[in-house]
Amino acid sequence: MASVPSPSPPLHHTTSRTTHRTQSSQPWHAHLTLDLLLRVLSNTLFHPFISALLPLCLRALAAPYTSPSFITTSAFAICVSLYWILEPMNRRIAYGGPRKINWEDEVVVITGGLGGLGGCLAEIFALRGVEVAVLDIAVARTKETKKDGQDVSDGEEKEGVRYYCCDVGDHEEVKTVWARVTEDLGMPTVLINNAAIVNGKLFMKLEREELERLLYVNTMSHFQLAKMFLADLLSTGTGGTLVTVSSVLAHQGAANLSVYAASKAAVTACHKCLSAELAGFAPQIKTILVAPGQLDTQLFGNVKLRGFLRNFLAPVVGAGEVAVKIVEMVDRGDGGVVSLPAYARWIAWMGVLPVGVQRVLREWAGVDSQFAIPSQEEDKIGPSSPGEKRLKDEG
């Protein structure tokens, strides 16, 4: 497929369906973060053009070639330039060449897309004129059964997005809805496995039904949807993109989230294995792993950052910001990993530290106390059916 000739609409960082913390509610230091510092440095001191100016300025001041300052700045400029040259090569070797994107031919399926990260993704793709299908249990079964907080019903199209009521933890219902999506919109070429449920409970208080339900929705649904998605693409040889939404908790669990963290570790491991398989016989199918930290959604509304340094190292990330990164990667036809904020990219390295140091860091960060939330689920997409655990988008 040839790339679309017309320019794409600008990416938006917010969505009308998602409730975020307003900037006015944040303290002034909330905007001073490690991510901001790294972004500034990458566009200034660690930019090849700026770093190359340092030895040139010294030469303009008649500094000799053998002076320590000239040698140091020259070595620094060379290292920075090599990084900028080798980084694209590293991505190309790791994930292969990009697939060609024609948005007029793409069909995007998003699970748990009524709000939060999924809602942002649905809105951005819809603005691009892409066929978008949202599978969510919070969608009303019929127009007559709409409840408070339910704006759309099954099969309804709104603002360029087609909504389907679907319990992704129900194997037979997923197959039925998938067939409807294919018939209504065409063969899906982008699948975003985003829906999940969470219950913050002590391990010993988890009931078997809760455990099974959570694993079916958070883990088994990824397997089923990915298999149906890949079966269609592999049978036709069409390129596509599979997006798996995981969490930093897949690497570092937290108290009261044992099953949730285990389910996210499972989908992360599955994604890596599947990526290795597809790289061998289906390089036209790209895979993207999303492992964000805390998002600014209602789900984490009760989780409060404590102190300037904690906020500096682990800031709350806007769901729209993560969505834009995902769409940009899909737009380029690339595979890869989306991890925001910066610490989420390095969290796995914490495992190499001495266990005592890890414990001290966890105590300082308040990891095991931040998620001591009540057992009821807080979600970003409105009420679910009676007795049903609420679907959420990842954070």
Notes on the structure:
It comes from Lepraria finkii. The chain is α/β, with parallel strands linked by helices and 395 residues long. It is built from 12 helices and 8 strands. It has helices at residues 34-42, 48-60, 68-95, 116-127, 171-185, 208-236, 258-281, 308-313, 319-332, 343-346, 355-365, 367-370, and strands at 107-111, 131-136, 157-158, 161-165, 190-193, 240-245, 285-290, 336-338. Strands 3-4-2-1-5-6-7-8 form an 8-stranded mixed sheet, sandwiched between helices. The model is unreliable at 1-24 and 373-395 (pLDDT under 50).
List the helices and strands and how they pair.
Elements: H1 34-42, H2 48-60, H3 68-95, E1 107-111, H4 116-127, E2 131-136, E3 157-158, E4 161-165, H5 171-185, E5 190-193, H6 208-236, E6 240-245, H7 258-281, E7 285-290, H8 308-313, H9 319-332, E8 336-338, H10 343-346, H11 355-365, H12 367-370
Parallel strand pairs: 1-2, 1-5, 2-4, 5-6, 6-7, 7-8
Antiparallel strand pairs: 3-4
Helix pairs in contact: 2-3, 4-9, 5-6, 6-7
Shape: globular
CATH top level of the largest domain is Alpha Beta
- Compute the CA-based radius of gyration: 23 Å
Write the element-wise H/E pattern from the N-terminal end onward. HHHEHEEEHEHEHEHHEHHH
- Give the helix/strand class: alpha/beta
Beta fraction: 5-15%
Question: Would you give the CATH topology of the largest domain?
Answer: Rossmann fold
Supply the CATH superfamily name of the largest domain: NAD(P)-binding Rossmann-like Domain
N-C termini distance: 34 Å
Number of domains: 2
Overall CATH architecture of the largest domain = 3-Layer(aba) Sandwich
Main sheet specs: 8 strands, mixed
Percent of residues in helical segments?
Answer: 40-55%
Total helices: the number is 12
Biased composition (Pro residues): 1-10
Keywords: Membrane, Oxidoreductase, Transmembrane, Transmembrane helix
Family: Belongs to the short-chain dehydrogenases/reductases (SDR) family.
Protein name: Ketoreductase domain-containing protein
